[in-house]
Amino acid sequence: MNVIQETINWLVSPQTWSADGHDMIARSLEHLQYSAIAVAFAAVLAIPAGWFMGHTRRFSGVIVGITGAARALPTLGLVTLFGLLLGIGLVPPMIALVILAIPSILASTYSGISAIDTSVLDAARAQGFTTRQLIARVHLPLGLAMIVGGLRSAFIQVMSTAILAAYVGAGGLGRFIFLGINTQHTAMLLGASVWIMVLVIVVDVLFGTIQRFATPAGVRRLNATTSAQSSAG
Amino acid sequence: MISHRAKHPRSVFLPLASTAAAALLLTACGADSDPLEDDETTQADGDTIVIGSQAYYSNEIIAEIYAQVLEDEGFEVQRDFQIGQREVYMPELESGEIDLVPDYTGNLVQYYSDEADSGSPEEVYEQVGDALPEGLQALDFAEATDQDSYTVTSETAEEHDLTTIGDLTNLGDSVSMAANSEFETRPYGPEGAQELYGVTIELTGVEDSGGPLTVGALTDGDVQVADIYTSSPAVETENLVVLEDPEYLVLPQNVVPVADEDLDEEAVEALNEVQAQLGAQDLVELNTRSVEDEAPAADVAAEWLEQQD
Q1: What pTM did the predictor assign?
Q2: According to CATH, what is the number of the domain B151-242?
Q3: More confident residue, A16 or B15
Q4: Closest by Cα among B172, B181, B168 to B249
């Protein structure tokens, strides 16, 4: 029996999914929950910061610095570091995942806001928009698709990396990756990897749909017109 | 003018690629093989004793001790340390490219016969003799071991009067324990503890093989028990208590030199002498000196040998 067949067998085995077996359903929910919490925390930090930098068009160097540096950080190293400082459990991997998620969200929010044409902003101001109105009626509608795009890529990165939660005793799907490696149970290792990929694709498709709806109808029409014009020209 | 915006800034392949990369990375980390391990061993002439070691600092210190002992006896020694796993150095030992390697009794039996019956160190040592192929011999085993253990903090041990694994029932209906997740599947894991000692273990997977995170989980009080290697410096630095295992739940892993059958008789005697001196505490101290003071293996070995005389 080859490895691929064994992997499929592992994935379809009732033992893999039942609550007294490996309980993959609970572990998957854990995994998704950790990813969602990490991205939510990162969004709370990165969206306002990205908006501020995009709106003022200042500190863009900070974006480059933060995104570059944060992406270079090895997440396993961070998990170990925070694990040693704060003890085992969910907090160390969560901090590491938030740090991982921030760059995408920060960069996309910044791009989404700073890419709004200044004439649009001037027109809004000229009509007497307050900053709050500007955010609600101009920034948010026009920047939303980009922000969702940032959340999308952050979520996907976090989902792939959240296996590290198992490294410090917090569970999730990483449990099967580590168990599979350490017991040389290749079918389990591959099965869990494949399952994480499936979940990642499902999440990506969901976000893709949200992103499409997050683009205002007017912008979609305008985009269609300009691309028609540019292809005609 | 319309602000330029890509309509689909991320392709579906990005997540796929990153997951695959993560999986690959993990597999690569998990494979214990050293890509440099098959470099050719320089063939030494007949009188030189070639000593190998695992790519494991503690094993290298023991190999260095053997080397210095043999040099003191006037033998020519060649050090081929940091070879890697048993799968690599045992064939070299069998083929005669290496003459001597420090190893551990239980693992040796498992390497040659898949299953090892746990028992006293003497019983496991007997199995080593049976398991070794023609042309190899096991010298005397030392008291020093490097094996999985049920370890607690000295405070817990005092408070609940713990000396053996069976005493863990003093802690209540079940005890929390940190270990690598595969501990769950091992014969010496929760099932074995239940069977031999009536102790119910609730496992928390911490995947650094008894390293600082596992030790931290124990000393922080996140868990009551941890699987820490008996030779770990943490046993000394964190003042931990390795619980006794009178029923031999954990397969004993006493330090034992495996050598070519034709190894010089004087060399065998000298090695057996040093083996007799290598106690459990000695190995912890050697490892502590290496890890805490970052002393090179040669210095650690030399200092220890000086103390023995």
Answers
A1: 0.77
A2: 3.40.190.120
A3: A16
A4: B168
